Amino acid sequence: MLLLAVPTAARQQPSRQPASTAHGYTVFVGGTVVGREDVTVQATADGFTITGKGRLSGSLDIVMRRVEVRYRADWTPEVFELEATVNGGDTVLQTTFSGQTAVTQGVDGGVRIAQTNVIPAQVLILPNVFFGSYEALTRRLASAVPDREFPAFLGAGAQGVLRLTSAGTERMQIGTSTFNVRRYALSFTNPRGTSVLNLYADEHGSLLRVNIPAQGLDVRRDDLASATARTLVYSNAGDEAANIPAAGFNLGATLTRPATAVDRVPAVILLAAAAADDRDGVVSGVPILGQLAGALAEAGFLAVRYDKRGHGQSGGRAESATLGDHADDAVSVVRWLANRRDIDGDRIAVLGHDEGAWAALLAARRERRIAAIVTVASPATTGTERVLEQQRHVLEQMSAPPTDWVAKIELQARINAAVMTGRGWDDIPADVRKQADTPWFQSLLTFDPEKVIKDIRQPLLLVHGELDAEVPVSHLDRLAKLAKGSRSRSVAVVTVRGVNHLLLSAVTGEVDEYASLQDRTSSKDVTDAINEWLTKTFQSAR
User: What is the pTM of this model?
Assistant: First the structure.
C-alpha cells in the first residue's frame, strides 16, 4: 500500500498568503531528474486545498492523474484523494478524517483497501507520492519553535514523529532578484528509521524545496531548479547582481559598490582559486573573494566577483574550461566595465587568489586595459611542480611511510606526463584517468608563470601570508624575482605576518587548523595593503 505521512500541527489559522497559487516542481534523486509535479493551492474562508498531478519514476513508476489534500478552516484534515497508475496498475484511494479517526477506502494495485486508524485529532496530510502536500506543513512551521514534535500518520497503522530541530533565514537569488527564504530542519522518525528533512518556504509560507539528504532526494520549485537560482552564501552592503556577457554566454556576477562614490570609480575584478568555483571564492567555509569585495568597496573601489563558467549562474561548459578560458572570461568583464559610464576605464585592476592569480596574469598579458594586477597567495612554479609539491606536503602531514611516498609520487608523475603528452595511460587506473584527463588539468600542469610574467607591463602587487602552508611563502620570493625581470613599471611585494592561505590570522597555517580558527574574517593587514597599493597606483596613473 502507498504510505501516507501525516504529522500533527499546532492549533492556528493559516498564515496570510495569496488566495490561489500554482507552481511546478522538479524531483531529483542523486542529481538526476526522476519526476515532476504541478501543484495548485487554494485558500478560502472554508479551508485550505492542495491539488496536483505529476509523475515519478524509479522503483515505482507512478503517474498521478489527480491528487487532492483538503483541510477545514481550523486546519483539521478533511480528505485525501489519489487517482494514479502505479507500475501499470490502477490506484484509487480516499482517506476521510473525522476527529481521531482516519478511514481509508479504495483499490491499490488491484488490492481492495478498507481500513480505519486512530490518529491524533489534528494532523497534516503528507502522502509520500505527492510532495506538493508539504505546502500545508511549511505554513504551520512558520510559528513553530525548535523541538516542537508533530506525530505522523503513515497509513496502514504505521506512525512516526516529525520534530523541528532548527529554523533560519537564507537569501536566494533568481536572475538578478533576491528574496528571503525560511529553512526548516526536521528529524523524521518512522518504522524505516530516522532521517533528516529540510524544507524551504518563501515569506508567505509557500513551499520552495523539499530535501532529504540520506535519500539524495531534492524537490525544487521550477524557478529554483533553474540555472539562474542560487543561495547567497555571503553578501556585502552595496551588493548588486549582474549578468555580464562573455563568449557566447553570460557570467553571473555580483558588483559591490562603494557607499560614497560620487564620480566614475575604479574597479577591481576578483578571480578565485581552483578550489572555488563560486563567485564568493569559498574555501574551507571562508568566502575569500566575498570578504575582499567588501573591503575594496569600503576603500572606494567597485569590486566584481562572478561564478566561473559552467557553475552557479554562469553559462558555458565547465568540463572543457581551461586556465586560458578563465582568463578570457576576466577580459570579458574588463571590457564590460570599460563601457560603463560609472566606471573609470583607465583604472581597472584584476586580483587573483592562488591559481586565480595565474588567470589574472594571463588576462593582463592579453588585455592592456587592465591597469594593475594583484596576486594573492600565488604559486610561482610550473603547474607540474606545483602538483607534486602539494602531494609531498599532504604525505608529510599524514606521516606516511617512505614506501608510500615513493609509490604515490611516482604515480602522480606518470599521471602528469600522460596528461601533457596523451601517452602512458595504459598503466594508470581508469577512474584516475577520468579525473585527471581534462582540459583544465592539462592547462594547469603546462602553465609556467615565468613565461607569462616576463610580458607583464602593468604595475604588480604580490601579497602572501607568512604562514601559508598550501602555497609556502618561498613562492613569493621566487615570484618577486620573476616579476622584477618583467616589463612591469613597478613591482611591490608584501609578506603579511601571522596569516594563512585563507587570509586569516592563524597559528600554524596548516589545513588541519582551519576548522578551529574562531576569527573567520580576512586579515585587515592584507586588505589594507591591497587597498593602499591600489589607491597609490591609480592616483599616480591619473
Answer: 0.70
